[in-house]
Amino acid sequence: MNFASVRIITDDLDRLVKFYEKVMGVSAQRPAPVFAEFVMPSCTLAIGHSETVPLFGEGSTVAADNRSVIIEFQVHDVDAEYERLKPFIEEWVKEPTTMPWGNRAILFRDPDGNLVNLFAPVTEEAIKRFNGRD
13, 21, 43, 112: most buried by Cβ count inside 10 Å? Predict the structure, then answer.
C-alpha cells in the first residue's frame, strides 16, 4: 500500500490553492475547475471544492471544519521559511521552536483554519529518524 494524498475540502478553492502555492513554492495542477493537486515526490496535497463532496457521499465531509489533523511539510531550514513567510502569514500558532522530539518547527493556519507545520529535524536522533525518508 502506498500513501497517495491528503485532500482538503474547501468552499473557496482558488483562495486555498493560492495560499499553498505561496507556502510550497510550486504551482498546483488543476485537472478540473473544482479540484487541484500539488504533486510532490513524497506525497500529494489535493484540494477539492465542497461541490465535490456528494461524489464521496453526501455529508461525508465539511469544508473548513478540521481541528484534528496537522498538515506537515519537511523543509531544509525552518528559520529561513519563517522569514520568507512572515509577510504572508497573518497569525503564527508557533514561531520557530525546537520540539522535544528534535524537530525545529513553525506552525500556522491556512485560510480555512487547517493547522500547517513546517519542520526540519535538527537533533542527531531526529536526523537519524528522518534519514532516507525524503
Answer: 13
Superfamily of domain 65-134: 2,3-Dihydroxybiphenyl 1,2-Dioxygenase, domain 1 (3.10.180.10)
Phi, psi (degrees; rounded to nearest 5) at 63:
-65, 145
Domain 1-57 in CATH 3.90.79.10? The answer is no
Domain extents in the chain:
1-57, 65-134
Rounded Cα–Cα distance for residues 128 and 33 (Å) = 42
50 backbone dihedrals φ, ψ, rounded to 5° = -60, -20
> Which of 72, 78, 116, 119 lies closest to 100, judged by CA?
119
Q: Are strands 5-10 and 115-121 parallel, antiparallel or unpaired?
A: unpaired
pLDDT digits (tens, 9 = 90+) for 81-99: 999 999 999 889 999 999 9
DSSP letter (8 states) at residue 52: G
User: Which DSSP state fits 86?
Assistant: T
Q: Report, as an integer, the average pLDDT of 104-119.
A: 97
